[in-house]
Structures are given as C-alpha cells and as structure tokens.
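Backbone shape codes
____________________
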Amino acid sequence: MQNKIKQLFNIKYPIIQGGMVWVSGFKLASAVSNAGGLGLIGAGSMYPEVLREHIQKCKKATDKPFGVNVPMLYPDIEKIMDIIIEEGVKIVFTSAGNPKTWTLFLKEKGITVVHVVSSVKFALKAEDAGVDAVVCEGFEAGGHNGREETTTFTLIPMVKEQVKIPVIAAGGIGSGRGMLAAMVLGADGVQIGSRFAATLESSAHINFKNTIVDVKDGDTHLTLKELAPVRLVKNKFYEQVQALYQQNPSKDDLIKLLGRARAKKGIFEGDLENGELEIGQIAGIIHDIKPAKDVLEEIVNEFNAVKTTIYKL
C-alpha cells in the first residue's frame, strides 16, 4: 500500500523536518529534501524579504519538494503569503491560528496545506477547513505547545480515530524506533524537529547545538502557559521565570520579563544564560551534531531494522 504522506508530498520517506524558528533555513530544508524527506523553511523568525531569499536559495539547492512553515500569528502574514505565492511554493504548513483563515486561499493557488494541532478538537476543525493533512504535536515537543498537555502516544490514536485525512505525528520523535512507534499507533508519517536542530545545516548557534547534545532527562520544562506554552531548557532565564511565578505575576509581568527576541538571543545568537532555549524532551537521546542526511538515513535504517525484530507474544 502506498504511504499517504509519501504520495501527498512526492517524497521518498514519510519524514518531515520541523520548521523551527532560528533553526530551519534553506540549508537545512534543502539538505533534508535532498536526502528524501520533506524540508521546511521556518518563516516564524524571518522578515518577509528574508523568507523570499531563503525560498529562492532553497529552489537552487534542491530540485526536490520542500515547504514553508507559517505561524499564523505572524504580524506580516499577508506579505508572507504573497511571497509564498509569488515564489511558487507548493507546500505550506500552518500553525498557531485558525486554519480556516488561509487554507482555502492557499488551496485555490494549488498549494498543499497541512495544519499543526494539539488536540482532537483542533484536528477536526482543520479537517473541516479543508487541509490536506494534520500534524498532531504532543506535549513532548520543543517550542510552543498546546495547552492540553496531551502526549504524542495518546494524541495520535485519538486523532486517527476521528479524522479521514493523513495524520503526521510530532513531539518526542527523534529516532527510527520513535518513528515506528508513532506509525504503529496510526500515524502516516512523522515530523521531527529537535534531532534536526542538532545538525550541521541547522542555522542555530553552535552554543545551542552543544546544549541540545548536553540535555538530559528532566532538563526541559513547559512554562509560560499564560502567554503561549513553550518548552524550554532550564537556564538562567527559565529560573527567572520560575522566580516570578512565586510572586503570582500578572500576564503583563510575564510579558515584561520575556521582552523581545528571547528565542533569537538563545537559539540564533547563542546566549545560553539570557536566551529562550526551545527544545523537545527527546533531546535526551541526541548525542552528536552531524549532517542532516546522516540523521535521516539513521532514522530510516533503524526504522527498518527494528521493524524486522518485532515478534509475536
């Protein structure tokens, strides 16, 4: 049987690289696409013309399918969408917003649309909006998360039971074993973020990449739920957030502490003390920094190897 995600995107493997802020530029996206997966450019940390530059460079770096991830809370969303149309991007992943806002517009332009969800309720809304697939992201994921705190292993089978469109699993997947487990639970493919953040092509600062390698079990935590839940590495900034919580802060107090460009400071500029270091729980099994091609090949090889060892009880 033809895999639905491979068929939908015309790719070799049903593996999508997450469109992470300050990490997923054209170098990473093209490397993953060239290796047989689907690379995504992360528009969330790019000014419109910077995104245009990355799209143009990605088209030169690969002749394989690639897409753009667009958080719909982006202030220049209209400009971003115009650039996507003008540059002929064929695949768009949307997140952090109502899928009805842009899905029809994009699909009328011949674009395949996927929406990121964190619950069955939002998956059904996305399907109703006409998206081609959903990414179901569990609580384990890095960066911004759903408020429900539903884990990937419980979210995937619940969504699969309710929707007819393809389901992509995300959150806590960084190996072939994890990919196989997600697909056994009903996922048609996987989206992997943290493992690709620790690659040579990732645009993250080397300090952040080394931090990913050093992260152990329990070193990350989901916080700032009053603003937008985000999973962070426990550093000086995180400790400041926790100290502020002891004072019963208002939403404005949290916004003031967060300030501007915290994620850029930590992920892109490498400030490990004052930056916002967004990474998933799966970082605990990431032990090295290597080319994206090698990461993808290792995931595929382990998937195939483990699949053959499963035995009957």
The radius of gyration is 18 Å. The first helix runs from residue 4 to 9. The chain is about 40% helix and 15% strand.
